[in-house]
Design goal:
The protein folds into 3 domains: 33 residues, no CATH class; 32 residues; 64 residues. It has 2 helices and 4 strands.
Length: 143
């Protein structure tokens, strides 16, 4: 082998253009080209992923914070005890018995309802107005 044929020898067509031919100025190395095929995920997979993300977002916002799907209602026992306490302490009512408020009263500003009570054995109605979403309410004068 002389220096003219490169490492594959000879001057014929078989020796040209092969990778490894490094004689000065003669054969050029060819870059190996690979065809890279990138497969895109199917459309249904993208739609399913988007639906999953949207479902999680709706679930978190609807049930956890701020709770669009959750309706808060007063605890009937706590409401009954609170009304009784206000009537005795703030209005000086005598013996307050049988405090009954409608069930499932929403905790929302502006809601109004009436509880029935017995004060010293006489029936009376007490108006209740919800002040805010935190559950504060005002107890009106018994009628």
């Amino acid at each position: 082998m002389s220096g003219s044929g490169g490492r594959f020898g000879g001057h014929g067509a078989a020796g040209r253009g092969r990778t490894g031919s490094t004689a000065a100025g003669r054969g050029r190395r060819r870059a190996a080209h690979r065809l890279v095929i990138r497969r895109r995920p199917p459309v249904w997979a993208s739609v399913a992923a988007l639906g999953l993300v949207a479902g999680v977002a709706v679930g978190v916002l609807g049930f956890v914070t701020p709770g669009f799907f959750v309706t808060r209602v007063f605890d009937p026992t706590a409401l009954r005890d609170g009304v009784r306490t206000v009537l005795i302490r703030d209005f000086g009512s005598g013996r307050v018995t049988e405090v009954q408020c409608p069930p499932e009263q929403r905790v929302a500003a502006g809601e109004r309802f009436v509880c029935t009570v017995r004060i010293d054995g006489a029936p009376a109605e007490v108006p209740i107005e919800v002040q805010d979403a935190a559950g504060r309410y005002t107890v009106g004068h018994p009628s």
